[in-house]
């Protein structure tokens, strides 16, 4: 189940590039068996075999069920394995009647970008920083040729692999890759999703430039980021933490994001959404029993607990 197979890339990469990528991923995939992930790995290796699977990727809740009636022992094992992946950051999902209410209502984000997406049928798509794959599964509903998720986080790879064994989206793949690995995929993608990642990197412009290089001419970038309000080209640089997060380097205004996109070479840059993040979109749940947005904002929700402006979410659609 954990064997590395990159045959799906044979029509996109030359043999030398494919060989180099194989060696890189062979090394990274060794992390999947690290003892710290033992509980999740055990869930993956001991998934119940279930027949007559039916998945639905069309709605807000990505769901999978069986036409056959599952016995109580199997359902108990499914629930136990779902809980082994807590906290669930992205969703919502439903597996065999069990609703997984994730920290993020990712369906709200998808609904914002969906009206602006080009036709996804037959397209080659990259989801950079894909987490457990929610947006990849939503894209898969529209029959793309391939959706490749890239995320270096081992627990997300294990979660995705567990889920997709039941969901059965054969055109959706995920690898332990980051933005710097886009160099392997020059001019390959029709569409790149880069949602909620650039503020986690020291050089956000480099992230955007790498996306540009990995896209076909005429391709689309959907970029979403945490940001601050205002129309001036200003960026907030937090001293230590921002809304409780340590790994936030820059919190840009929308003009800064537009300028980054322009400097990277994109054209037809369109701002499609810019508003404050609501605590109903990111919150603690039974499946994500962690401090979330509400715990990191002031009582009036206008400031972060560090005293900075509360975060907005800024979305752009840009074309190469």
Word description of this protein:
- There is one protein chain.
- With 320 residues, this protein is an alpha/beta fold.
- The protein has one domain (12-319): Rossmann fold (3-Layer(aba) Sandwich), CATH 3.40.50.
- 27% of the residues lie in helices and 23% in strands.
- It has helices spanning 15-28, 38-45, 72-84, 106-113, 134-140, 154-167, 204-214, 254-264, and strands at 53-56, 62-66, 90-91, 93-95, 98-100, 104-105, 124-128, 146-150, 172-175, 189-195, 215-227, 235-236, 251-252, 267-276, 312-319.
- The strands form 4 sheets. A 7-stranded mixed beta sheet has the order 9-8-7-10-11-15-14, sandwiched between helices. It has a 4-stranded mixed beta sheet with strand order 1-2-4-5. Strands 3-6 form a two-stranded parallel ribbon.
- Helix 7 (204-214) packs across helix 8.
- The relative contact order is 0.12.
């Amino acid at each position: 189940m954990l064997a590395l197979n990159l045959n799906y890339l044979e029509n996109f990469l030359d043999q030398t590039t494919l060989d180099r990528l194989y060696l890189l991923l062979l090394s990274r995939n060794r992390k999947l068996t690290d003892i710290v992930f033992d509980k999740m790995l055990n869930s993956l290796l001991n998934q119940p075999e279930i027949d007559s699977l039916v998945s639905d990727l069309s709605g807000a809740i990505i769901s999978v069920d069986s036409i056959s009636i599952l016995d109580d022992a199997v359902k108990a094992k499914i629930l136990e394995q779902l809980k082994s992946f807590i906290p669930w950051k992205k969703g919502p999902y439903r597996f065999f009647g069990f609703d997984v209410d994730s920290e993020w209502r990712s369906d709200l984000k998808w609904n914002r970008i969906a009206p602006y997406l080009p036709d996804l049928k037959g397209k080659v798509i990259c989801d950079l920083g894909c987490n457990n794959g929610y947006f990849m599964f939503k894209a898969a509903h529209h029959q793309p040729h391939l959706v490749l998720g890239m995320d270096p986080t081992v627990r997300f790879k294990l979660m995705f692999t567990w889920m997709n064994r039941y969901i059965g989206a054969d055109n959706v793949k995920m690898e332990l890759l980051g933005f710097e690995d886009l160099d392997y995929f020059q001019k390959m993608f029709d569409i790149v999703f880069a949602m909620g990642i650039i503020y986690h990197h020291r050089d956000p412009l480099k992230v955007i430039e790498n996306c540009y290089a990995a896209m076909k001419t005429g391709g689309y970038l959907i970029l979403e980021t945490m940001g601050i309000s205002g129309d001036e080209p200003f960026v907030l640089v937090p001293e230590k933490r921002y809304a409780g997060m340590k790994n936030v380097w820059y919190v840009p205004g929308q003009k800064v994001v537009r300028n980054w996109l322009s400097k990277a070479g994109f054209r037809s840059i369109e701002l499609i959404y810019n508003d404050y993040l609501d605590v109903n979109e990111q919150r603690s749940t039974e499946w994500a029993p962690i401090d979330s947005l509400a715990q990191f904002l002031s009582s009036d929700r206008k400031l972060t607990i560090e005293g900075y402006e509360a975060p907005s979410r800024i979305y752009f659609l840009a074309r190469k």
